[in-house]
Design goal:
The complex is a heterodimer. Chain A is mainly α. Chain A has 13 helices and one strand, in the order ααααααααααααβα. Helices cover 79% and strands 0% of the residues of chain A. Chain A is globular. Chain B is mainly α. Chain B is 81% helix and 1% strand. In chain B, helix 2 packs parallel to helix 4, helix 3 packs antiparallel against helix 4 and helix 5 runs parallel beside helix 8. The chains are: A mainly alpha, B mainly alpha. At the A-B interface, helix 1, helix 6, helix 10, helix 12 and strand 1 of A face helix 1, strand 1, helix 6 and helix 7 of B.
Chain lengths: 415, 225
């Protein structure tokens, strides 16, 4: 088919733009919980984001990519008209990217997931027809947007309560922290590995039975815990920093734990949000190369690499400034609280990714922070801002849809 | 300037402003002791200087109080009750106010105490300021309380400090009633109007202990929510 090379190039460019936006806005905020708590440096944040975003996308992101690519629209009506799908996906991608870029510039707390879901539904309704949208599937996705912050909040609440019970409430919190923090590391690594492995890694040539899956997850968790234990052992009380309880030193122990949860968060984000950029790109490419509309197709690895690279680039260019601002402003989020929020959010996101539901990292993280707040963990949470974040969800979906329709009409007129 | 949704979620913690304000109240207490020494020595020039310092401190405390109130909108979610926090700052502020009132009363009337009453008056003033100091130490534990999430060992520590505060406040009650008995015994030999205001000054010194005691009570309420 003629023009197909052009479509592929356009898709790659738009995908890169979208990934850049995700890195600049979404990842910057996700990583900022760690840099803000002074647990990791900016350089470490880039490195962690680069490695684990990509790992998350490759190892655990497939199901979400499939949902974004073709799970929400019934492509049967498009069988004879592959260009329609290509235009649609291109406009959805561009719409979400533009909206995201606009939001990054103004500091609006938008969700990349909401942008792309809104954009795809928007083009499908106008371009194909109301009945082409799999409303049941879209409904499930929207439901998950409500459930995921709630779930992350409950998990964060429970995690922080255990921290209080095991460490902060005790007579000697420092000794307790040194004892229990490696255990949290084990569970963080074990959970993420288990969810990822259970979903299956046959696509990277790893075929394990259930017993092997559990054993491997436990081994990964144990390895991380031992490394953490070795690091923590060397931490000495900060002289003169505090009196009896050594809370300042306790926070330094939690800072080591936060390195693990920051990796989990980047992995979780990669598994969920990279799909927002690469899903439509994959749809365009499979349609353009085969010349027909397919429900399923293999995913060329270079697309994932493109997504990962775009995200890291966005983080390094624009996200750097976002992370710096957050670092200066969130002094209240100490490592003992930050880790609880991150661990809960990461677990929720990876779980959702495993079931193929694209959820909002932004909102899940906010839900987790609120959960810690409910456990009397944070000095002050600005509920006005929290409300604005949830309102932005309502605005983002139609905004993505509207932009996508506009771009779709333009594409159809031009080509 | 790049902004982030996440940074906005975290409101500024009220702890440091509260501690700063309580430190001002305690400073007012100590300056009041200086003032009382000058007044008892009849050195009204020095007393005037100390009193104006005390007024400055009280103004500063008022400013901190206003700042904190503005900073606590009702949309803030905190691990403590917002009303309790506002009550706490109000009570702390009354300590600074009362210290200023006592200096104002003594200076305005050039109050002269009979020599036999001076030691008791000094003791009462000192003990009342001890109570203020103990209240400041207890409020000083607030950030540790926030860190521990209002549970466990840290709560027990603060409970002990508040028990100590209660004991000091009991002392001030005893000292005040002893002093009143002394004044009553020599009432007939003193100018009646002076007696009225002497009772007033004793009552206000007792207030310092009383307000400090209430600061302790409010801290307990914060913890118990």
């Amino acid at each position: 088919m003629e023009g197909m090379t052009l479509y592929i190039i356009l898709a790659a460019v738009f995908g890169l733009y979208m990934a850049w936006g995700i890195g600049a806005n979404d990842v910057a905020n996700a990583m900022a919980t760690s840099t803000g708590a002074k647990a990791i440096s900016m350089r470490q944040a880039f490195l962690i984001a680069a490695v684990f975003e990509f790992a998350g996308a490759v190892l655990a992101g497939g199901a979400v990519t499939a949902t974004i690519r073709s799970g929400m629209i019934d492509t049967a009506d498009l069988a004879g008209n592959p260009e329609l799908l290509i235009f649609g996906m291109l406009s959805a991608l561009l719409a979400a990217a533009v909206w995201l870029n606009l939001a990054s510039r103004h500091g609006w707390p938008v969700s990349t997931t909401h942008s792309i879901v809104g954009a795809i539904v928007g083009f499908a309704v106008v371009g194909i027809g109301f009945e082409a949208v799999k409303w049941a599937k879209v409904g499930t996705i929207v439901m998950s947007w409500v459930v995921s912050p709630l779930l992350a909040g409950i998990v964060a609440f429970i995690i922080f309560r255990t921290v209080q019970w095991l460490i902060l409430d005790r007579e000697n919190p420092l000794a307790q922290a040194k004892r229990w923090v490696p255990v949290y590391m084990f569970f963080a690594a074990f959970n993420i590995s288990l969810v990822t492995l259970l979903k299956g890694l046959t696509h990277v040539g790893l075929d394990l039975d259930t017993r092997q899956t559990y054993l491997l997850s436990a081994a990964i968790g144990l390895g991380i815990a031992v490394m953490g234990w070795a690091l923590i052992r060397r931490i000495q009380p900060v002289p003169g920093a505090d009196r009896d309880n050594h809370f300042a030193t306790v926070e330094r122990v939690f800072a080591v734990l936060m390195i693990v949860t920051a990796c989990s968060m980047a992995f979780a984000h990669g598994s969920n949000d990279v799909a927002n950029a690469v899903g439509p790109v994959a749809a365009v490419i499979s349609t353009a190369t085969s010349g027909q509309v397919q429900q399923t197709s293999s995913m060329p690895p270079w697309i994932l690499l493109l997504g990962g690279a775009g995200i890291v680039f966005g983080l390094m260019t624009y996200g750097r400034a976002v992370m710096r601002t957050v670092g200066e402003q969130i002094t209240a989020l100490t490592p003992s609280r930050g880790f609880a929020a991150e661990m809960a959010a990461a677990a929720t996101i990876v779980l959702a990714s495993g079931t193929g539901l694209p959820i909002s990292t932004t909102h899940t993280l906010v839900g987790a922070v609120l959960g810690v707040g409910m456990a009397r963990g944070i000095a002050a949470i600005n509920l006005q801002v929290v409300r604005n974040i949830f309102v932005s969800w309502v605005v983002t979906v139609p905004a993505g849809a509207l932009l996508s329709v506009i771009f779709f009409l333009i594409f159809r007129a031009v080509f | 300037m790049p902004t982030s949704f996440l940074a906005g979620i975290f409101g500024r913690s009220p702890v440091q402003p509260l501690k700063d304000h309580m430190a001002k109240a305690a400073e007012a207490g100590h300056v009041l002791l200086d003032f009382i020494e000058a007044a008892l020595a009849g050195d009204w020039e020095r007393a005037a200087n100390v009193r104006s310092r005390l007024q400055d401190i009280e103004h500063e405390a008022d400013r901190l109080k206003a700042d904190l109130r503005i900073r606590l909108p009702s949309t803030l979610m905190m691990p403590v009750d917002r009303g309790d926090l506002l009550d706490l700052i109000t009570t702390q502020d009354r300590i600074a106010n009362r210290a200023k009132d006592i200096a104002g009363l003594m200076y305005g009337r050039r109050m002269v105490l009979p020599d036999s009453l001076a030691p008791g008056y000094r003791r009462l003033a000192q003990r009342s300021v001890d109570a203020v100091d103990q209240a400041e130490r207890s409020v000083g534990e607030l950030d540790e309380l926030f860190t521990a999430g209002f549970r466990g060992a840290e709560v027990k520590l603060v409970e002990r400090m508040i028990t100590e505060l209660d004991a000091i406040e009991d002392d001030t009650d005893t000292l005040a009633s002893e002093l009143r008995a002394q004044v009553f015994a020599m009432e007939q030999s003193l100018p009646p109007v002076d007696v009225i205001f002497l009772y007033k000054a004793i009552e206000w010194l007792g207030d310092l202990g009383d307000f400090s005691h209430r600061v302790g009570g409010l801290l307990q309420r914060l913890i118990a929510r």
